[in-house]
Amino acid sequence: MRTLSRLVAAALALALTAGALLVAIEIVLAGVGAGPLVVPYDSWYSNGRSTMWDSAVARRAFILVLILGAALLLMGLVRRRPLSLPLSTRHELVGTHVARRGLERSLSRAATSVEGVERATVAASDTRARVLATASRHETGNLKELVTAAVNERLGGLRLAGQPSSDVSVKGMKS
Question: In this model, does residue 171 exceed pLDDT 60?
Answer without folding.
Answer: yes
